[in-house]
Amino acid sequence: MDQRDTKGGDFTGTSLLKLTFKVEGADPGEFITYDQSKCNSCGACSLVCSANLWAVKDKAKLSPRYQELCLECAACYAVCENDAIAFRYPNGGAGIIIKHG
Ligand code: SF4
Ligand code: SF4
Fold this sequence. Notes:
This protein has three helices and six strands; from the N terminus they run E-E-H-E-E-H-H-E-E. It is an alpha+beta fold. It is globular and about 35 Å long. It starts with 19 loop residues before the first strand and ends with a strand. One iron/sulfur cluster binds next to helix 1.
């Protein structure tokens, strides 16, 4: 780990994804679903996602790799004022583990 990660609270250049890992072989299930017919393309989900998993052009679209990369913060679900996004935690025994937290 980079020295900046542990000294003085300076997390410049630190990737959240480097601080997490997945439980190998576990199936998290479809823990984020979304309804594009409710999306007004406001872009809020894309703005708050620290893993950069949402793309919003015409309508919001979630990365097909979200089960692997999602940090399970639920921010996308929280900010969507149109209730277009549904979030639940991954199936038991699956999901992310924070290494340094
Ligand atoms: S926050 Fe909701 S309404 Fe806004 S772009 Fe994302 S899915 Fe669409
Ligand atoms: S739960 Fe958090 S990390 Fe996962 S897609 Fe939503 S905003 Fe991104």
